[in-house]
Amino acid sequence: MKKPDEIEIIKIFQSRFGQGPKFIPEDLEVLSISNQNFLVKSDMLVQSTDVPAGMKLYQVARKSLVSCVSDFACKGIKPRYAIISLAIPRGFTRKMINELAIGFAKASKEFAVKIIGGDVNQGKEIVIDVSMFGVGDRLVRRGGAKKGDIIVTSGPFGYSSSGLKIILRKLKADPKFVKKCKKSVFLPTPRLEFGLKAARYFSSSMDSSDGLSITLNDMSKLSKKRFFVTRIPTEKDVEEFAKKKNISLVDLVFCGGEEYEMVATVPKKNLHMVRNIAKKLNVPLFEIGYVTNGKNVILVDKKQEKTLKRCGWVHLRS
Amino acid sequence: MKKPDEIEIIKIFQSRFGQGPKFIPEDLEVLSISNQNFLVKSDMLVQSTDVPAGMKLYQVARKSLVSCVSDFACKGIKPRYAIISLAIPRGFTRKMINELAIGFAKASKEFAVKIIGGDVNQGKEIVIDVSMFGVGDRLVRRGGAKKGDIIVTSGPFGYSSSGLKIILRKLKADPKFVKKCKKSVFLPTPRLEFGLKAARYFSSSMDSSDGLSITLNDMSKLSKKRFFVTRIPTEKDVEEFAKKKNISLVDLVFCGGEEYEMVATVPKKNLHMVRNIAKKLNVPLFEIGYVTNGKNVILVDKKQEKTLKRCGWVHLRS
């Protein structure tokens, strides 16, 4: 019998926890206590699935915080505190612990998130689970897109999936491009400041770390709208890499994941504000399409319209 | 060179995170945001270190929540919400997932903690990291004991360490005793209701899951007081087991861990209140000694006074 994958597992849990089929997942969990919205995100990084060869320990530690920061960024909520639960194998030296500590401290400083505690354990591999906390009244939802809104991304896609292919399949490519790709894999940087300033002008938003197609499809479904993608958010060097290596550009850009860019829909009247904020913060905003009535994500590629299916990373899928 | 253990690792992290040597660890982390105290606990359960042979999946899932509930119980704070991050190996069947879900749901109901979200991952072994949340104004500290206070525990010690020895070393013992011990290991139950009602009468308190000697030593050190232990908090059957198997009773009771009982100090004027609450809730309160000026934990055993050293479970200690 087929084993359940991540998506089925979550469904089983949700039904058991009384959340029912109408439960809407969000980038952040909301705890409403005493009229205060307390926002939390937990994200687990596992060495054997999340750490590609060549990634340094300080980068691993930093990335465990980056995943959570990215979810706060897209919702426009300032992350304030973090708690870190850690499992490490026996034999970790003082030097290795120090390297992890440096990575945590680096991310803490970079995103102004105070690390307030944690739990240290022994395990078969490195596992880092970060819980991050903030407060906020208004939370941009995944499902708020309206007809006529413009779909934007906070940066180009394709570098991290190209990077993973370069690392895992040991592909050769232009050294400058390789460097850019590896930076995208090892040192991803969510656009926190942009999110904090621009989110109030979004009608919906979502973190893209599971892959752009999953993100667009989830937003379309939850908004009950059709998303028309007329421009592929990427750069020339990714296009060239795809061509040279005979890899589908659509796969690289839409089915990769780990980009830590935000995807948002912006009402037309707000677009100039979002453009201005992006310009001021040097964020390479991509306007990739628009929202209309209907359902599904439609990609207009080489003047052909096709439905963009959910593709990307799903844990435990065989 | 000697590898750093859990305690040294935490010190390295604390110095890097700017918490300094004066940082006082607590059972719960306090996030003060907008004049509201949010209380959080994260606790990671790792299969290879925390799950003894014979423990069922639903018990593993339940126990991952129990560890956090226990910390809330001893501080007298009601836990309200939980987030669960999970890593499981490939090949987990629907039945196994269901068993985990049942365990989570069972604990959620048992302690009235709402599970609001989580993260599912693939890893080499089962890792469950639970973050639990509550609010509260007054938090009983680990370091508040005053001269003359009575030291109490919310139940007997020695069953879980006996149980672990029975399981790991395959020791034979009286079936009724084995059952009691296994229940203590597989289905530990923190005294949440007692903690919620009685904590206001404590001058200090701490969860004992790392071992009773560690707990008493930490409380003594943080309170800058001497703890005099005049009674060993255990039962006749544990004493008999120790005698028969030629195991030190002091080791079984003070150096075990995983008991999930609370240790507290109670000002004499509050003692009758705490006794009454315990009686009403069928909590077998043990009054095990008193607080005086000085330092260290002194155990009076067979009319001899000796210093009770820190012993118990430390991760990654060789």
Could you characterize what this model shows?
The structure is a homodimer of 318-residue chains. Chain A has 318 residues and is α+β, with helices and mostly antiparallel strands. Chain A has two domains: 6-135, 2-Layer Sandwich (60s Ribosomal Protein L30, Chain: A), CATH 3.30.1330.10; 150-307, Alpha-Beta Complex (Phosphoribosyl-aminoimidazole Synthetase, Chain A, domain 2), CATH 3.90.650.10. In chain A, 37% of the residues lie in helices and 24% in strands. Chain A is built from eleven helices and twelve strands. Chain A has helices at 6-16, 47-50, 57-75, 94-110, 159-168, 175-186, 192-198, 212-223, 236-244, 249-254, 271-280; strands spanning 29-33, 36-46, 81-88, 114-122, 127-135, 150-153, 204-207, 226-229, 262-266, 286-292, 297-301, 304-307. In chain A, strands 7-9-6-10-8-11-12 form a seven-stranded mixed β-sheet. In chain A, helix 4 (94-110) links the parallel strand 3 and strand 4 (114-122). The longest helix of chain A is centred in the first third of the chain and has 19 residues, at 57-75. Chain A is globular and about 55 Å long. The model of chain A has no long low-confidence stretch (mean pLDDT 93). At the A-B interface, helix 1, strand 1, strand 2, helix 2 and strand 3 of A face helix 1, strand 1, strand 2, helix 2 and strand 3 of B.
Give me a quick take on this structure.
By secondary structure, chain A is α+β, with helices and mostly antiparallel strands.
Query: Helix content range of the residues of chain A, please?
Result: 25-40%
The fraction of residues in strands of chain A falls at 15-25%
Q: Let me know the average pLDDT of chain A.
A: 93
Q: Give a count of the beta strands of chain A, DSSP E runs of length 2 or more.
A: 12
The succession of helices and strands of chain A, N to C, reads: HEEHHEHEEEHHHEHEHHEHEEE
Strands in their spatial order, largest beta sheet of chain A: 7-9-6-10-8-11-12
Largest sheet of chain A: 7 strands, mixed
What are the segments of chain A in which pLDDT stays under 50 over at least 5 consecutive residues? Answer: none
Oligomer designation: homodimer
Distance between the termini of chain A: 12 Å
Give the total of domains of chain A: 2
Using a beta-carbon cutoff below 8 angstroms, give the protein chain pair with the largest interface and the number of residues from each chain. Answer: A-B, 67 and 67 residues
